[in-house]
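Hi there,

I know you've been waiting on this one. I reran it after we fixed the sequence typo, so this is the corrected version. Both the input and the resulting structure follow.
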Amino acid sequence: MRYIGSKANLLENIKQVMDSYCGVGNKSFCDMFSGTGTVSRFFKPYYRIISNDLLYFSYILTEATIENKTIPSFEKLNRKGIKDPIKYLETIPVSKIKTYFIANAYSPYGKSKRMYFTEQNAKRIDYIRTQIEIWKEDNLIDVFEYKYLLACLIEGVPFVSNITGTYGAYLKHWDNRAFKPLEITIILLATQ
């Protein structure tokens, strides 16, 4: 995920410092400003993770990747004929998608004519987000499946966003990545 403040390039250095100063006996690792959860995921195999961040997207990403031990099975959706929820969410034709919040507030479709997302990607984000919520309300997915699907959507959105790395402002001209169709990112979970 593109994110200002990511520590992805520092992970090995952080581990060296942890190993030299904390020793082997420590069992917990606290990621105080977890952001995308990159540091928490990296240290999951070595420690019990305590993760914190003010942003809800950060909470979802970390819960989905730290609390889940395996990729969810989606048994109830499978019984309804939805064998692969990610593929199902990605293949709904845009023409069948109703517009909701993202399309109205963050794309040229809305009154503000903002350029965070193309109209098509904004509508797809709205559909996927709404469908995940419907599955939750209909008790077709449990809490871990819910957070996992949300995290997969969150991870895919930056690859079609017309931003520099923060949603504080959009670019005034379309970046080429914004024209790619939204693809939900399948998140690999760190092993225990």
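Quick highlight: The helical segments are 11-22, 38-43, 56-67, 75-79, 85-90, 101-106, 119-137, 143-156.

Best,
R. S.
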